[in-house]
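Field notebook, page 164. I keep forgetting to write these up properly, so this time I am using the form the group agreed on. The chain and the ligand, adenosine-5'-triphosphate, are recorded exactly as supplied. Prediction of the bound pose follows.
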Amino acid sequence: MISGERSVMVLLSKSPEETFRIGRILADGLEAGDVVALTGELGSGKTCLTQGIANGLGVPESYVVTSPTFTLINEYPGRRVDLYHLDVYRLTGCADLAEMGYDEYLSGRGVMVIEWAEKIRGAVPFDALFVVMTYLEENVRKIEISGCPDRIGFWEKTLKEGGC
Ligand SMILES: Nc1ncnc2c1ncn2[C@@H]1O[C@H](COP(=O)(O)OP(=O)(O)OP(=O)(O)O)[C@@H](O)[C@H]1O
Ligand SMILES: [Mg+2]
């Protein structure tokens, strides 16, 4: 993306299964080097969406995708591209990122999904896919996805085809 132009799409998920399915469909448009920056309070469904992305990337079901709260990063092998799952909840800033090899992961052959991305805002690439998840009711979440217009257009189409 050369310009800073962004498009936004808003989805309503009425169950964890639906959020999982949204993640699975998002995965179809993801390539190595992509960053998905997830923002949302505790329990808003960030890990649930990431589990769907993992499934869509072809991560074998023998891997259980959970928030890597203590390890900071978990790596999973995908079919086309791998998944790097970060949870930076416990970070206070960007300093610890260098230590964990953040830049190497960014240029690696995987898709990076970051929970609590707002905590490392300055280190998130400007062309990341930004996803804001909001708790509305016990089983209902608002999911706002923004990114470069071409890609959002692709996902609008595939999500609609997928019944989301
Ligand atoms: N529509 C929904 N989408 C996603 N999760 C939902 C939905 N409805 C209910 N849930 C429940 O909300 C919880 C979401 O948990 P999840 O671990 O994905 O949140 P999180 O944002 O990753 O939290 P944390 O910040 O603690 O890592 C799960 O227990 C899930 O079953
Ligand atoms: Mg989580």
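OBSERVATIONS:
- The chain has one domain: 10-161.
- The radius of gyration is 15 Å.
FOLLOW-UP: compare against the apo run.
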